[in-house]
């Protein structure tokens, strides 16, 4: 096959490209330029897609003897990831920009161009497995499993994906990279939002949205404090509320609801964060079992927060009745459904939806 290796400049994509080449594929390395003004170096931030990362990716491709290109997706990235991130906060949601980048850029946009140029598949360094039936599974490395952020793909996109490192634990990937002499072998993992390299999300949102004063209230509606903008807060937040009036019982307060239209931020107890029902739209079906009513597991964050549920899937929305309550579930997050299995491979990803309401 002709394979596009998406080269982030990290160790995982380096080994993914190497393994795709060893498997006999014709491999071309591509680094995605997602900013018109990429950082020269990451310095203290550990984001991705900087000029330093591009140089690291090029060195790996040179060592492998494969062509390397940089594709400029910065305009599309701004529109579909950065602008979406800001718009979501304006609506009182808590988006996951890395998940949206996977959905809109690293697979949809890259694959669209790749297929137009005659490529058969995109290979990435994600930790997930595609089984013999073409279904997405969890990685055996529980600590690095990235099937959650891949649950937003379409079946068409998944059919053109390769995850060469998904069946291997991370320490072994680093050892393999070192054997190849890749400079990325000991490179730290990225975790910052790449378009907020200093990590100050509130400052970024303040510049993007501006001051929109509103009120923090308790669950009875009593006004506690004025704020500068609802975008400063997320569901489940405890720190940084700076409310001078203590609760009558001394218990800490948490953000339990955000009404962006009125600028009202509601705070309550930890118990008020408990969610037993989730509604989601923007459905993506990756397995035929994701239809009608069925039992499955649901995950609402990239790491952890997995509980069994009863799912009822319609044409455009699904409702999940959780068998155990989850805490701090926010609108804008993805609800990814899994079918637990007893075989040696990980749980099957059924599909996903974007959370629009909880109760």
TrEMBL record:
<keyword id="KW-0067">ATP-binding</keyword>
<feature type="binding site">
    <location>
        <position position="125"/>
    </location>
    <ligand>
        <name>ATP</name>
    </ligand>
</feature>
<keyword id="KW-0694">RNA-binding</keyword>
<feature type="active site" description="Nucleophile">
    <location>
        <position position="101"/>
    </location>
</feature>
<feature type="region of interest" description="Interaction with tRNA">
    <location>
        <begin position="144"/>
        <end position="146"/>
    </location>
</feature>
<dbReference type="GO" id="GO:0000049">
    <property type="term" value="F:tRNA binding"/>
</dbReference>
<keyword id="KW-0547">Nucleotide-binding</keyword>
<feature type="binding site">
    <location>
        <position position="32"/>
    </location>
    <ligand>
        <name>ATP</name>
    </ligand>
</feature>
<dbReference type="Pfam" id="PF03054">
    <property type="entry name" value="tRNA_Me_trans"/>
</dbReference>
<keyword id="KW-0820">tRNA-binding</keyword>
<dbReference type="GO" id="GO:0005524">
    <property type="term" value="F:ATP binding"/>
</dbReference>
<feature type="active site" description="Cysteine persulfide intermediate">
    <location>
        <position position="194"/>
    </location>
</feature>
<dbReference type="GO" id="GO:0103016">
    <property type="term" value="F:tRNA-uridine 2-sulfurtransferase activity"/>
</dbReference>
<dbReference type="Pfam" id="PF20258">
    <property type="entry name" value="tRNA_Me_trans_C"/>
</dbReference>
<feature type="site" description="Interaction with tRNA">
    <location>
        <position position="333"/>
    </location>
</feature>
<keyword id="KW-0808">Transferase</keyword>
<keyword id="KW-0819">tRNA processing</keyword>
<dbReference type="InterPro" id="IPR046885">
    <property type="entry name" value="MnmA-like_C"/>
</dbReference>
<protein>
    <recommendedName>
        <fullName>tRNA-specific 2-thiouridylase MnmA</fullName>
        <ecNumber>2.8.1.13</ecNumber>
    </recommendedName>
</protein>
<dbReference type="InterPro" id="IPR014729">
    <property type="entry name" value="Rossmann-like_a/b/a_fold"/>
</dbReference>
<feature type="domain" description="tRNA-specific 2-thiouridylase MnmA-like central">
    <location>
        <begin position="203"/>
        <end position="268"/>
    </location>
</feature>
<keyword id="KW-1015">Disulfide bond</keyword>
<keyword id="KW-0963">Cytoplasm</keyword>
<feature type="domain" description="tRNA-specific 2-thiouridylase MnmA-like C-terminal">
    <location>
        <begin position="276"/>
        <end position="355"/>
    </location>
</feature>
<dbReference type="InterPro" id="IPR004506">
    <property type="entry name" value="MnmA-like"/>
</dbReference>
<comment type="function">
    <text>Catalyzes the 2-thiolation of uridine at the wobble position (U34) of tRNA, leading to the formation of s(2)U34.</text>
</comment>
<dbReference type="InterPro" id="IPR023382">
    <property type="entry name" value="MnmA-like_central_sf"/>
</dbReference>
<feature type="binding site">
    <location>
        <begin position="6"/>
        <end position="13"/>
    </location>
    <ligand>
        <name>ATP</name>
    </ligand>
</feature>
<dbReference type="InterPro" id="IPR046884">
    <property type="entry name" value="MnmA-like_central"/>
</dbReference>
<dbReference type="GO" id="GO:0005737">
    <property type="term" value="C:cytoplasm"/>
</dbReference>
<dbReference type="GO" id="GO:0002143">
    <property type="term" value="P:tRNA wobble position uridine thiolation"/>
</dbReference>
<comment type="similarity">
    <text>Belongs to the MnmA/TRMU family.</text>
</comment>
<dbReference type="Pfam" id="PF20259">
    <property type="entry name" value="tRNA_Me_trans_M"/>
</dbReference>
<feature type="site" description="Interaction with tRNA">
    <location>
        <position position="126"/>
    </location>
</feature>
């Amino acid at each position: 096959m002709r394979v596009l290796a998406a080269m982030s400049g990290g160790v995982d994509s380096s080994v993914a490209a190497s393994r795709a080449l060893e498997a006999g594929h014709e491999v071309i390395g591509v680094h995605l330029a997602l900013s018109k003004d990429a950082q020269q170096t990451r310095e203290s931030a550990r984001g991705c897609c900087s000029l330093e990362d591009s140089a690291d990716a090029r060195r790996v491709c040179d060592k492998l003897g494969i062509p390397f290109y940089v594709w400029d997706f910065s305009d599309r990235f701004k529109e579909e990831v950065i602008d979406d991130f800001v718009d979501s906060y304006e609506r009182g949601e808590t988006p996951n920009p890395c998940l949206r980048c996977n959905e809109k850029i690293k697979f949809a946009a890259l694959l669209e161009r790749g297929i137009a140029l005659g490529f058969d598949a995109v290979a990435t360094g994600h930790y997930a497995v595609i089984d013999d039936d073409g279904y997405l599974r969890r990685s055996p490395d529980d600590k690095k499993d990235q099937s959650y952020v891949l649950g937003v793909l379409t079946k068409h996109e998944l059919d053109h994906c390769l995850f060469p490192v998904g069946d291997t634990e991370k320490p072994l990937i680093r050892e393999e990279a070192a054997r190849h002499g890749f400079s990325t072998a000991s490179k730290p993992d990225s975790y910052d939002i790449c378009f907020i390299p200093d990590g100050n999300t509130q400052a970024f949102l303040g510049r993007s949205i501006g001051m929109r004063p509103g009120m923090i209230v308790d669950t009875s509606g009593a006004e506690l404090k004025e704020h500068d903008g609802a975008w400063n807060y997320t569901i489940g937040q405890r720190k940084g509320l700076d409310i001078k009036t203590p609760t009558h019982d001394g218990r800490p307060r948490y953000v339990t609801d955000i009404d962006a239209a009125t600028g009202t931020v509601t705070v309550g107890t930890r118990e008020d964060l408990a969610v037993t029902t989730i509604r989601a739209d923007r459905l993506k079906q990756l397995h035929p079992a994701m239809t009608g009513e069925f039992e499955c597991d649901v995950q609402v964050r990239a790491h952890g927060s997995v509980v069994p549920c009863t799912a009822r899937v319609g044409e455009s929305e699904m409702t999940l009745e959780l068998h155990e309550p989850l805490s701090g579930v926010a609108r804008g997050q993805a609800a990814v459904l899994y079918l637990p299995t007893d075989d040696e491979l990980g749980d099957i990803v059924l599909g996903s939806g974007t959370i629009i309401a909880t109760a």
